[in-house]
TrEMBL record:
Source organism per UniProt: Dacryopinax primogenitus (strain DJM 731) (Brown rot fungus)
Keyword annotations of the record: Aspartyl esterase, Hydrolase
Keyword Hydrolase: yes
Record-level Gene Ontology MF annotations: pectinesterase activity
Pfam families named among the record's database cross-references: Pectinesterase
Domain of life: Eukaryota
Protein name: Pectinesterase catalytic domain-containing protein
Pectinesterase catalytic domain sequence ranges: 30-221
């Protein structure tokens, strides 16, 4: 049983630009294989309960499991993370961040529903060149491919999660989330993506959400209920 270490930054990036740049320390190119990471304080939902916090570094995980509840996974500013295999357990916005992350062949286990699975923040105005829009040059993205999103086997049996969970919502208007060839069980609401509460209840440009080859959530591949901002991609793009 391992308590997840922190690499290069120990705080969550907040505000419009994330944390200010900090002096480099720790491991800037970390790899882990077949380790269970758990937030030991979070044996139930207790607001934010990170199991990873990685900023200003590269990190990759192979066959590892991550268990918490709200805000479990954080990929911070100027960070690239890659995850292959394993399971991430959480409930509210449990994949969030302000960097670039790619999940491949990962199981996302919904212990509950609140907010969405992915809450991402893209590049903001201070990172642009002049007034040039960042889209499609936004490099702070979240990608999920060849994975599955399911009700967690350890979810409270009294919880009705049917159609209660969403795929993503934007932490700022420049958010990008792409989901490819991923199975989704009936915990996922057919609209897929939602606005961030407290903001205008529309998903604005240049927010970019996209799916390709998703299955299981909408019987017969029916995409009629998807959010209007959800780009359904074909094999060529």
């Amino acid at each position: 049983l391992i308590v997840a270490p922190t690499f290069n930054a120990s705080l969550i990036g907040m505000g419009t630009v994330g944390l200010p740049l900090q002096p480099k320390f720790g491991n800037v190119d970390f790899k882990a294989y077949h380790i269970d990471f758990r937030n030991l304080a979070a044996n139930y939902a207790i607001s934010q309960a990170l199991v990873t916090d990685i900023s200003y570094a590269k990190a990759s995980f192979y066959g590892c499991n991550f268990a918490s509840y709200q805000d479990a996974w954080y990929t911070g500013r100027n960070t690239s993370t890659y995850v292959k295999g394993g399971t991430i357990y959480g409930e509210t916005n449990y994949v969030f961040g302000f960097g670039t992350v790619c999940f491949e062949q990962v199981t996302f286990a919904n212990r509950g529903c609140g907010g969405a699975l992915v809450a991402w923040k893209g590049t903001n105005k201070s990172d642009r060149t002049g007034t040039t829009p960042i889209t499609p040059g936004n490099h702070y993205d979240a990608y999920i491919s060849n994975s599955q999103i399911i009700r967690s086997p350890d979810a409270n049996t009294t919880l009705d999660l049917t159609s209660k969970c969403y795929l993503g919502r934007p932490w700022n208007d420049d958010a990008t989330t792409v989901i490819i060839r991923t199975y989704m069980d009936d915990t996922i609401n057919a609209t897929g993506f939602i606005p961030l509460s407290g903001r205008p209840q529309v998903i604005l440009n240049p927010t970019y959400y996209a799916e390709h080859g998703s299955y299981g959530r909408c019987p017969g591949g029916n995409i009629s209920q998807h959010a209007s901002a959800d780009h359904v991609l074909d094999a060529a793009r």
